[in-house]
């Protein structure tokens, strides 16, 4: 176990995070996420509710043998004993012991309305449930954290009772009392005031557990720390019930970078982007690109004026160095680009745009293409081809090899309702000139782009066997100027991949197949170019 930080990071991704709509974790998922959390360097990993959820019972059983945690302690979460019973004979409380986790977190009522209406017992019996449950688990050698549910609402309704719940827990041996904004309805000023009052009245080590229903979970957590909380609870990527919990990645980055308070293992913060994305893969919840610090857009710049200043000093338009959280700065090329953005993007892609004439010509070409409907910010491969083509026009580079000449192409889609499989089939024919010879090839597919791709490959395979390594992996169509309905301009973004990476090309046209053809041909050309294949046309 590592030495405790002054502020303890308590992760509840595997318990409260798993309460998010649409998120369902297998035991293997939970074990994998726990390893990532330990690698990040959090202090406590709340693994779930053993005894209530069979998967969580299994998680703790396997964790005891399979997880070799280097930094974190595991916590088993559950409720206080039932009203009218005894902790030592309560099946749920015993299941918490059986989980063999060093920490047990007990959720308890601290709001008299909840005691009377949800627990349907008396405030006095609720205090006894807290005392008995905490004392029993402490006597069994567990560190006990008390999660005081609906604490802020309870405190505002009946201050004396809410404080008494905390006092009873501390007297019974709890190590920390976590104040929960269970409904997530409070703002930072109230959270700060209440935490300060609790600190003055009880003086116990306090945790803070915030939900994001007002969009203030992270701000509330920081306000609580400022007012004296020493444990921050939250979830990776802000997963959680309803609008989620405090995003622990943002909380820890703020504490380490803005408050100069180390809370993770040394070096942990630099792993934050990698771990946040790895956990997204496991949860199958797409990463949120605008997530603070670790989102793909967190250090991405689009506006020309920003890029122009960044060229002088990146810090002029970013609040912190992206490397501190393992993220990268990226430049986007779009109609908002100026020469500085284009030059920086060129540097990112390894293209030499130091010639001012070329730089201006590429900037102009980007702006005029974007006005036609092209978008380069999501199509780096098309930008790369554009730069090479503009450079070649000005005698400043070799351009893009002429891999083949297109004479014509045609595609037919046929539907035969009587057919056994009943789906439409497309058939394409391409006429190319290759090595001075005319060549005609056809291909079939379940759609026109698929058929054109098949026909092109049939024609090109003898001259370019390298194409066998390239696959078309994604295809996105967007109608621009939708007011024109089926007459509108169409934009196609097409992703091609080889074994190492993928790249995106863009095509625009009044006809979806025409736009797709442009993106398809450029996707293959870029694939050949990046493999260093010379023209054999
Ligand atoms: C704020 C939070 O997010 S806390 C975490 C919430 N997480 C979950 O609820 C997920 C796991 N929950 C479960 O699997 C089930 O709800 C269980 C196993 C805990 C309970 O299931 P059941 O016994 O079928 O009861 P049910 O869910 O209908 O009601 C909850 C019971 O717990 C009692 N209860 C609620 N809060 C507490 C508490 N803090 N301490 C003790 N008992 C409590 C309720 O009074 C109710 O008792 P009752 O059955 O006598 O009416
Ligand atoms: C304990 C908990 O998850 C809450 O009160 O929100």
Automatic annotation (TrEMBL):
The keyword Amino-acid biosynthesis applies. InterPro entries: 2-isopropylmalate_synth_dimer (IPR013709), AIPM/Hcit_synth_CS (IPR002034), Aldolase_TIM (IPR013785), Citramal_synthase (IPR005675), LeuA/HCS_post-cat (IPR054691), LeuA_allosteric_dom_sf (IPR036230), PYR_CT (IPR000891). Gene3D superfamilies: 1.10.238.260, 3.30.160.270, Aldolase class I. Its EC number is 2.3.3.21. Pathway: Amino-acid biosynthesis; L-isoleucine biosynthesis; 2-oxobutanoate from pyruvate: step 1/3. SUPFAM superfamilies: 2-isopropylmalate synthase LeuA, allosteric (dimerisation) domain, Aldolase. It is an enzyme of class 2 (transferase). Pfam families: HCS_D2, HMGL-like, LeuA_dimer. It comes from the Bacteria. Residues 7-270 form the Pyruvate carboxyltransferase domain. Keywords: Amino-acid biosynthesis, Branched-chain amino acid biosynthesis, Isoleucine biosynthesis, Transferase. It catalyses: pyruvate + acetyl-CoA + H2O = (3R)-citramalate + CoA + H(+). PANTHER family: (R)-CITRAMALATE SYNTHASE, ALPHA-IPM SYNTHASE/HOMOCITRATE SYNTHASE. Belongs to the alpha-IPM synthase/homocitrate synthase family. NCBIfam families: citramal_synth. This is Citramalate synthase. It comes from Aquipuribacter nitratireducens.
């Amino acid at each position: 176990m590592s030495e405790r930080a002054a502020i303890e990071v308590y992760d509840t991704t595997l318990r409260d995070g798993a309460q998010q709509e649409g998120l369902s974790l297998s035991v293997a998922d939970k074990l994998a996420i726990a390893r990532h959390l330990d690698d990040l360097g959090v202090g406590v990993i709340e693994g779930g509710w053993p005894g209530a959820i069979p998967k969580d019972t299994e998680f703790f059983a396997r964790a005891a043998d399979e997880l070799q945690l280097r930094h974190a302690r595991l916590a088993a979460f559950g409720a206080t004993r039932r009203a009218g019973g005894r902790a030592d004979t309560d099946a749920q409380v015993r299941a918490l012991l059986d989980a063999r986790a060093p920490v047990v977190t007990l959720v308890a009522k601290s709001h008299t309305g909840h005691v009377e209406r949800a627990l349907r017992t008396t405030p006095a019996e609720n205090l006894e449930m807290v005392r008995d449950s905490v004392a029993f688990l402490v006597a069994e050698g567990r560190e006990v954290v008390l999660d005081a549910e609906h604490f802020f609402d309870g405190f505002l309704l009946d201050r004396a009772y809410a404080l008494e719940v905390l006092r009873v827990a501390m007297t019974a041996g709890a190590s920390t009392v976590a104040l929960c904004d269970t409904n997530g309805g409070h703002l930072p000023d109230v959270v700060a005031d209440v935490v300060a009052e609790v600190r003055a009245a009880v003086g116990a080590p306090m945790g803070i557990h915030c939900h994001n229903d007002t969009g203030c979970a992270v701000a509330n957590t920081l306000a609580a720390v400022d007012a004296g909380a020493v444990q921050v609870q939250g979830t990776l990527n802000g997963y959680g019930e309803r609008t989620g919990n405090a995003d622990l990645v943002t909380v820890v980055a703020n504490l380490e970078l803005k408050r100069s308070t180390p809370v993770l293992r040394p070096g942990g913060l630099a792993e934050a982007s990698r771990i946040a994305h790895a956990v997204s893969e496991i949860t199958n919840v797409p990463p949120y690109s605008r997530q603070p610090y670790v989102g793909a857009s967190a250090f991405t710049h689009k506006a020309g004026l920003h890029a122009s200043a960044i060229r002088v000093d990146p810090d002029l338009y970013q609040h912190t160095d992206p490397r501190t959280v393992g993220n990268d700065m990226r430049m986007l090329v779009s109609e908002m680009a100026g020469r500085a953005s284009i030059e920086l993007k060129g540097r990112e892609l390894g293209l030499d745009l130091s010639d001012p004439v070329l730089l201006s010509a590429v900037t102009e070409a980007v702006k005029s293409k974007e006005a036609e409907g092209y978008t380069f910010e999501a199509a780096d491969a098309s930008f790369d081809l554009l730069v090479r083509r503009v450079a070649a026009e000005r005698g400043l580079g070799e351009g893009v090899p002429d891999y083949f000449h297109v004479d014509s192409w045609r595609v037919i889609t046929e539907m035969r309702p009587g057919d056994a499989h009943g789906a439409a089939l497309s058939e394409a024919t391409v006429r190319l000139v290759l090595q001075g010879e005319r060549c005609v090839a056809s291909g079939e597919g379940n759609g026109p782009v698929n058929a054109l791709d098949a026909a092109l490959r049939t024609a090109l395979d003898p001259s370019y066997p390298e194409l066998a390594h390239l696959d078309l992996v994604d295809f996105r169509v967007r109608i621009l100027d939708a007011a024109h309905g089926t007459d509108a301009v169409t934009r196609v973004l097409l992703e091609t991949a080889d074994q190492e990476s993928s790249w995106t090309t863009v095509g625009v046209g009044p006809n979806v197949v025409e736009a797709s053809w442009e993106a398809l041909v450029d996707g293959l050309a870029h694939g050949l170019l990046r493999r260093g294949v010379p023209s054999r046309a």
